[in-house]
Write a structure and sequence with these properties.
Blueprint: H1 4-13, H2 23-34, H3 43-55, H4 62-78, H5 84-90, H6 94-102, H7 107-116, H8 126-138, H9 147-163, H10 168-179, H11 186-200, H12 224-237, H13 244-262, H14 268-284, H15 286-296, H16 307-313, H17 318-324, H18 326-330, H19 340-346, H20 350-356, H21 360-363, H22 368-379, H23 382-389, H24 392-399, H25 407-421, H26 425-428, H27 430-442
Helix pairs in contact: 1-2, 1-3, 2-4, 3-4, 4-7, 6-7, 7-9, 8-10, 9-11, 10-11, 11-12, 12-14, 13-14, 13-15, 14-15, 14-16, 17-20, 19-22, 22-23, 22-25, 25-27
């Protein structure tokens, strides 16, 4: 008996309720399985009778259950080393698996039961399959269902959408039915939002079938956690390739997020979440952001005194701020290290750079790490490179090696050299072009004779 799955099965079947498998005994067999054995079709049939036997032992510890599920069953599920016929014959049919998922049993067992449903073959009966989808989605309405089981529901639905596009309408219908229920807790609503995002991630072909009820949510909520999760939902939408109609539908929600940001009664947690979402909106859906800003006047009232305003300024494109609040850029204190994230953001915009009028004295008052970060941002665009070569004092600081260079400065300096090295002679001019190539050839790292990088002692540019 050389198959480690067969050996583990024999070990499990030889156990008794009075002498159940121990974590130590299980670990020996699990280590053998881990040692290069890839699960294959048949492994589940081999192992399941023994697992079923020991799961019935009231004396089996939670640690042993977790080991069996996480280290033996889950790899079979995640690798797809089974099929619906084997699952149905060995573990149980859809009704049995759903009953296990709903039962008051170990969270790991619940999660595995839902995972087995991912093997369901819709050729077994499409109508029955659509009913199964409805039942799987309904698990999110069980308030006390473990988060691991809920995450597995999302993963199974994701797999169905990937492999069986025909089930999409059934999934949408099921999620929408839960959304329209008269009373939903904040927990259930957040799960609906996560499933909606899962569905939307499969909109790569521009499918425009999402009902408004799955896109529009009220932001303000007495439950602050629920409010933050809803704001996060709208931030996550911005990561996805979606038809414009989605954002037309969602515009009232983004407007409410902006109102939350401006509200004097909003706490910092709310404003911080709103700032991240608005910053992302300004970059990926500039038209929607501009309409909202025109109505509320957010950008023209941003100040450097407010910590959360500063976070938002580090996200909104510099060209937009240059148009709406140019005076803020003109008066910007360039040499203030704590504001460098804003400066780096603006360095990517020619319009903002024209207003900043950067010079050597102000830039070289920045600590070296911050100056190198600014230098890298400038080196990533044509107009930024032209500005750098017009400031020879700054270029000298960026390119000159010191006797001792700490790891962080060496890395940052290497990033600047790499970015500048992508330029041509006409952009940098003959002198700086040669200097950059020389540093590129020498490599990033400034080292002493013994070849060991030194502790970073260059706190400020000299």
């Amino acid at each position: 008996m050389s198959d480690p799955y067969e050996k583990l099965a024999a070990y499990l079947l030889s156990s008794t309720a009075t002498s159940p498998p121990t974590p130590e005994g299980l670990q020996v067999h699990i280590n053998a399985i881990r040692g290069g054995v890839v699960p294959k079709l048949g492994a589940l049939s081999t192992i399941w009778p023994g697992i079923l036997q020991v799961l019935a032992y009231p004396t089996l510890t939670n640690e042993s259950i977790a080991l069996l599920v996480d280290e033996v069953v889950e790899p079979i599920i995640s690798s797809g080393a089974s099929n619906w016929e084997e699952v149905k014959t060995t573990v149980g049919d859809a009704e049995t698996l759903l009953a296990t998922a709903r039962a008051d049993t170990h969270p790991k067992v619940k999660k595995a039961a839902i995972g087995f449903l991912s093997f369901y073959d819709f050729l077994d009966g499409e109508d029955k399959g659509f009913e199964l989808v409805q039942e799987i989605v309904a698990i999110i309405t069980i308030e006390k269902e473990p988060e691991g089981a809920i995450a597995r529901v999302e993963k199974v639905i994701d797999q169905f959408l990937t492999n069986y596009f025909a089930v999409r309408p059934a999934i949408l219908k099921s999620v929408l039915a839960i959304r329209k229920r008269a009373k939903n807790s904040a927990t259930v609503i957040s799960r609906v939002q996560e499933l909606t995002l899962t569905i939307l991630r499969h909109n790569t072909s521009g499918v425009d079938d999402i009902p408004e009820d799955l896109v529009i949510y009220r932001i303000a909520n007495d439950d602050i956690l629920a409010e933050l999760m809803t704001i996060q939902f709208y931030e996550s939408l911005l990561d996805l390739y979606l038809p414009p109609t989605i954002f037309i539908m969602a515009k009232p929600a983004y407007l409410e997020i902006a109102q939350t940001y401006k509200s004097p009664s909003a706490i910092n947690l709310e404003r911080s979440a709103a700032s991240r979402t608005l910053g992302r909106l300004s970059k990926s859906r500039a038209g929607v952001f501009s309409e909202i800003d025109n109505s509320l006047g957010i950008v023209r009232n941003l100040t450097l005194r407010d910590e959360i305003d500063r976070k938002l300024l580090a996200l909104i494109p510099g060209e937009y701020i240059a148009t709406v609040n140019p005076q803020l850029i003109r008066n910007f204190p360039v040499s203030t290290a704590s504001l460098v994230d804003i400066l780096i953001n603006w360095c990517h915009s020619k319009e903002a750079l024209d207003l900043l009028q950067l010079d050597t004295p102000n830039l070289t008052r920045l600590p070296v790490p911050e100056l190198l970060r600014v230098g890298k941002a400038l080196a990533e665009s044509y107009h930024g490179k032209k500005l750098l070569v017009s400031l020879p004092g700054v270029m000298e600081v960026l390119l000159t090696r010191r006797e001792r260079m700490g790891y962080r400065i060496m890395r940052l300096r290497g990033d600047v050299v790499d970015a500048l090295a992508e330029s041509d002679n006409a952009t940098l001019g003959p002198y700086w072009y040669d200097r950059v190539l020389e540093e590129k050839i020498r490599g990033h790292w400034g080292r002493e004779e013994n070849g060991e990088p030194k502790v970073d002692i260059m706190d400020r540019a000299a």
